[in-house]
Specification:
- The structure is a homodimer.
- Chain A is mostly helical.
- Chain A folds into 2 domains: 54 residues, Homeodomain-like (Arc Repressor Mutant, subunit A); 108 residues, no CATH class.
- At the A-B interface, helix 1, helix 6, helix 7, helix 8 and helix 9 of A face helix 1, helix 6, helix 7, helix 8 and helix 9 of B.
- Chain A binds a DNA duplex through helix 3.
DNA sequence: TCCAGGCGTCAACACGTGTTGGCCTACAGT
DNA sequence: ACTGTAGGCCAACACGTGTTGACGCCTGGA
C-alpha cells in the first residue's frame, strides 16, 4: 500500500502509543508496533530514527491544569480530581509515562519535573503556604497518582467500577486538605 | 571460592532482591545478579531453575498487618500508615512487587490478591460497612501505594525528605476516613 | 589413599532485540 | 514515454538475553 508520509507517521505514532501504554517502554517492541501499524519495522526507524525518539514523540504531554483562581476555594480539591480523571482518560499518555517511569530514570525525572513545574505553583497559590508548597503538591500527587495506579495500571476491580463522581466525592476532600488547608 | 550450597543460594537471593528492586523484573538480568553474587550465571539456574522462579523466591511477601482490634478507633488510620511505612522500609520486597506489577500481569494479579485478601477484611471489620468494604480498601490502597510510589519509586524529593511522623500526620486521617468513616 | 559427589566455571546455543543498507516500485513532473 | 524520488520491503548484522551441557576441582568419607 502507498500513503502520504505524514499519514504513515501518524499511524506509527498511534500504534506506538497503544503499545507503550499497554506494555511499557521495554516490552513494547519496534516490531510489534510496526506490525500493528501494518508496515515494516525499518519504516519506524526511518520516520523516528530511534526507539527512544519514538517514545519521546509518543509521550509528549501537558497536564493542562485549568485556571483555579475562578473556582470557589472549597471546590479546588474536587476540581483538581475531576480534571485529573479527565486528563487521564482523554488519552493514554499518562499511562505510558507511569508505566515507564517506574523502571526508567529519565522518564521518572520527566514526571517529577512535570509535577513540580505545574502542581507546586497551584499548591503555593491556593494554600498561601509557600514554604510547604512542595510538600503539599507531593502529597496531592501521591493521592492522585496512587488512584491512577490502582485504577488504570493495577486495575483494582473495585476502583475500576467506581464512577467518576464517587471518586471525586472521596478524593476531593483529601486533595483539598493537602493543597488548601491553612498552614 | 567454595561454599555450602545454602550460603550460595542465600547470596544469590540477596543479590536478586537488590537488582529486582532497583531495576524491575525485565531490566534485572541473571548475569548482573550473578555478577553481584560473585558467581557464574549458570549457578543461578542450578539453584532456582528459572528466572521466573528466582523472582518468585525473591518476591515472597506477607503484609503482616497487625491486629487492629486493640487499637483505639481513631488511631486506625495512623496505625495503618505507620505500619505500611515500616513494612515498606524493612525490606525491598514491596518495591520489587510494585516495580514489576506495573508491566507484568501475573504480578499485578498477585498485588491485587494480597490487598484484597488482607486489607478488605480490615476495612470491613473497622467500618462495619461490609457492602463497601472493597471500595474502602481500594481507596486506602490508592493512598498508601501512591505515597510509596512517589516516595520510594519515583523519588519525589519533597516526599523523600518528609519524616515518618509527618507522613503519619498527613496520611493518617485520610486512611482513617477511607477505612473507618461511618457508612 | 582413593574416589564419589557436590560446587563451580566455561563455552555455546537459540532467540529476540534495535538498527542498517540495499533493493524494488509506483507515481509526479517533464 | 522517461526518469527521479519518495514510500515501502527484505535480509542481515551485532548484541544481549535466558538457558544448557560438558568439564574441572575441592572435599569428606571409606
Amino acid at each position: 500500500m502507498r500513503r502520504r508520509s505524514e499519514d504513515t507517521k501518524a499511524l506509527i505514532l498511534a500504534a506506538a502509543r497503544e503499545r507503550f501504554a499497554a506494555d511499557g517502554y521495554d516490552r513494547a517492541t519496534i516490531r510489534a508496533i510496526a506490525a500493528d501499524a501494518g508496515i515494516d519495522p525499518s519504516m519506524v526507524m526511518r520516520y523516528f530514527g530511534t526507539k527512544e525518539r519514538l517514545f519521546a514523540a509518543a509521550a509528549e504531554f501537558d497536564l493542562e491544569l485549568p485556571d483555579l483562581t475562578s473556582v470557589p476555594g472549597d471546590d479546588v480539591g474536587a476540581t483538581l480530581v475531576a480534571h485529573f480523571l479527565d486528563r487521564w482518560e482523554r488519552d493514554e499518555t499518562l499511562v505510558i509515562l507511569l508505566r515507564t517511569a517506574v523502571t526508567n530514570e529519565a522518564v521518572a525525572e520527566r514526571m517529577r519535573s512535570i509535577f513540580s513545574a505545574q502542581l507546586v505553583p497551584v499548591a503555593a497559590k491556593i494554600s498561601g503556604d509557600h514554604a510547604a508548597a512542595r510538600k503539599r503538591a507531593a502529597l496531592a500527587a501521591s493521592q492522585i497518582l496512587g488512584m491512577a495506579l490502582c485504577r488504570y495500571v493495577l486495575a483494582l476491580p473495585s476502583l475500576g467500577t467506581m464512577t467518576r463522581q464517587e471518586l471525586v466525592d472521596w478524593l476531593g476532600p483529601v486533595v483539598q486538605r493537602y493543597v488548601a488547608s491553612p498552614a
